[in-house]
Design brief:
This protein is mainly alpha-helical. The protein is 70% helix and 4% strand. The longest helix has 39 residues, at 251-289.
């Protein structure tokens, strides 16, 4: 088992490395985006890029490199011509910066001359907290509704839950958050219409989490309810459960001891897969509700062509998705003892 785990983790990191390498090269092939700010700010940025090996600083023009990215005359009356070095040379400098200084680049627009990792690190906790809260809310509610629908199969309770699931699972999260903002924010005035800043009272900050968490939870609750109902109905009609009933177990005992336990085997790993989906869906919600997370940062960096921040944001989403997939595969072996991944035949 441990050999399989190490192998999967190794393949995961290799995959991440290949994806990020290709993404870096493709981004560097895009037209160079000039940093914002005055000439002194731009000069500081380019000198920083020179120190990292991405840009060449010359005292005179070099026609073979094409047009200079930026020209500047410093306080000592020395001229600086900055040229972009070849992409493969930048790739080597990028690898060196990551492995020696954990340097992923510097922002050009969102926060000029601030490292992209610092910008991501300041926004990541907000995104993670919202997604974790939505999982905490959606998992017990979804499983409870699924169990209730399975126990009341083909009865009014089952029909009501199944109909509600069909309706709400078809509504995208960005439509749901728009409805919630309009009703509870503008019409009733109970909740803030935008995500509160950090300098407001704690009660208002807590209220700011309600709308995005509920909007993200609706689809997950419906997914868990439908999946749980289907799995539990299948288990309840199995032969071994009928055998348990014939041996004297009551319906409640058979469900609690056997049906639920076996139905949870495919449901528990699906929580990780659902978390990945929620993390991707929160990208639109963060923009609509003004949440300072990595999802809204991704859209801002793309619109403003802040390539370094965009690249690190993509790296975070890619790494979380791939690592969660590895944990999802491994979890089957721990949840169900009958599964022994990597075992010899």
């Amino acid at each position: 088992m441990w050999k399989y785990v190490l192998k999967r983790l190794g393949l995961c990191f290799v995959t991440i490395f290949i994806i990020l390498s290709l993404t870096f090269i493709l981004m560097k092939l895009l037209p160079f985006q000039m940093p914002v700010g005055n000439d002194e700010t731009k000069f500081a940025y380019f000198m920083n890029q020179v120190s990292k090996g991405y840009v060449l600083d010359s005292r005179k023009a070099i026609p073979s490199y094409g047009d200079a990215l930026f020209e500047y005359r410093d306080g000592a009356n020395r001229r600086h011509f900055f040229y972009e070095v070849p992409v493969l040379a930048q790739y080597g400098a990028w690898l060196k910066g990551i492995f020696t200084a954990w340097d992923w680049g510097t922002s050009t627009y969102i926060m000029p001359n601030v490292t992209a990792m610092a910008i991501i690190g300041g926004r990541l906790p907000t995104s993670i907290s919202i997604n974790i809260l939505s999982v905490i809310v959606s998992v017990p509610l979804g499983i409870f509704l699924g169990i209730l629908a399975a126990l009341k199969k083909n009865k009014p309770t089952d029909h009501v839950i199944s109909t509600g699931v069909m309706i709400f699972i078809s509504i995208p999260s960005f439509i749901m958050i728009t409805i919630l903002i309009y009703i509870f924010g503008y019409v009733l005035g109970w909740l803030p219409t935008q995500f509160p800043s950090t300098n407001v009272p704690l009660a208002e900050r807590v209220c700011g989490y309600i709308i995005p968490v509920v909007a993200l939870s609706f689809g997950s609750i419906c997914g868990y309810a439908r999946f749980t109902r289907a799995e539990l109905c299948e288990v309840m009609s199995s032969e071994y459960l009928l055998l348990a009933r014939t041996k004297g177990l009551t319906k409640r005992q058979a469900i609690l001891r056997h049906a639920l336990r076996n139905a949870m085997v495919p449901i528990v790993p699906s929580i990780l897969a659902e978390f990945i989906g929620i993390l991707g869906g929160s990208m639109i919600l963060e923009n609509l509700y003004g949440i300072p997370g990595i999802g809204s940062l991704f859209v801002t960096a793309m619109n403003q062509k802040d390539y370094n921040v965009l690249f690190v944001d993509m790296a975070v989403f890619t790494s979380i998705g791939l690592l969660a997939g590895v944990v999802l595969d491994i979890s089957y072996g721990f949840i169900d003892p009958r599964i022994r991944m990597g075992a010899k035949k």
